[in-house]
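Incident review: delayed structure delivery

Summary: a single-chain prediction request sat in the queue longer than the usual turnaround. Root cause was a stuck worker, restarted by the on-call engineer. No data loss occurred. The affected request and its eventual output are reproduced below so the record is complete for anyone auditing the incident later.

Affected input:
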Amino acid sequence: MLLLENIPLAPLTTIKIGGPARYFVEAKCIGEVQEAVTLARSRDLQLFVLGGGSNLVVARCRWPGCNLDDRDSKASTDATNPMKDGKVLFDVGAGESWDSFVSRAVMARCAASNA
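Output delivered after worker restart:
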């Protein structure tokens, strides 16, 4: 896990407004998400999961906590039990693109229904 300091948040939001984060972690896997949570707790920092950066307005002043960028997470189906009560189950990270996830969910549902 790479911990960065004073990273501008404006480029990471859809409206491109906002100041820097005191600490910033870009998680590439669940283990790095867990490390970021442990780090924030050990330093008594608030942790904010940035996700895709939409529906978010960031203040221009520096935020003193730790921002976690989880954009690389991907949704996955439960391979051991893809259908339960007529539903397809997904494990979705905070950074999953909404449009991509909906498309994959529709395709998985169609595939499961045709099986």
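Verification: Residues 24 and 44 are 15 Å apart (CA to CA).
Action items: add queue-age alerting; document worker restart procedure.
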